[in-house]
Inverse folding.
């Protein structure tokens, strides 16, 4: 594998990045794109079942197909994917994940809220010169908090 493609399915947008592997433990992001797909649109309220709508899924699949045209031009790509709140909460998440797998060959990992918080923390602590921090991630379908001290996550929701 020379390139790692990451698909990130959020409540309002799907993002993708291509990361060139440059060493044993090193990579360089070479491309990043985002499409606003509003995947959580129409999922209902607390009294209704939460389902991804056909229109929202169609928009998201279209965006992924566009991304696929881009990343397929890069050599030796491995595609991985994650999904957060909209997919996590949707009763029909299994169907959505299966459609993405059929399109890309990639099995999407649906993150728990705790995993999402942990990855938020890792992104911040590895991007900024911080030893202590409080991270507050407000997304389209969820909100995560993480407390870091001495570059270690101490608390999270």
């Amino acid at each position: 594998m020379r390139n790692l493609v990451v698909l990130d399915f959020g409540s309002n947008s799907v993002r993708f990045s291509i990361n060139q592997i440059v060493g044993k433990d090193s990579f360089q992001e070479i491309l990043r794109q985002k499409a606003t797909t509003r995947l959580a649109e129409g999922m209902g309220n607390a009294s209704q079942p939460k389902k991804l709508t056909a229109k929202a899924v169609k928009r998201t699949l279209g965006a992924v197909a566009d991304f696929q045209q881009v990343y397929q031009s890069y050599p030796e790509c491995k595609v991985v994917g994650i999904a957060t709140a909209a997919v996590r909460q949707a009763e029909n998440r299994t169907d959505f994940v299966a459609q993405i797998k059929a399109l890309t060959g990639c099995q999407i990992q649906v993150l728990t809220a705790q995993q999402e918080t942990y990855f938020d923390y890792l992104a911040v602590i590895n991007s900024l010169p911080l030893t202590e921090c409080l991270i507050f991630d407000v997304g389209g379908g969820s909100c995560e908090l993480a407390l870091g001290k001495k570059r270690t996550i101490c608390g999270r929701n």
User: Anything to note?
Assistant: The beta strands are 3-9, 13-23, 26-36, 77-83, 108-110, 133-138, 143-149, 152-156. The mean pLDDT is 90. The helical segments are 54-71, 85-89, 93-104, 113-125. The chain is about 30% helix and 35% strand.
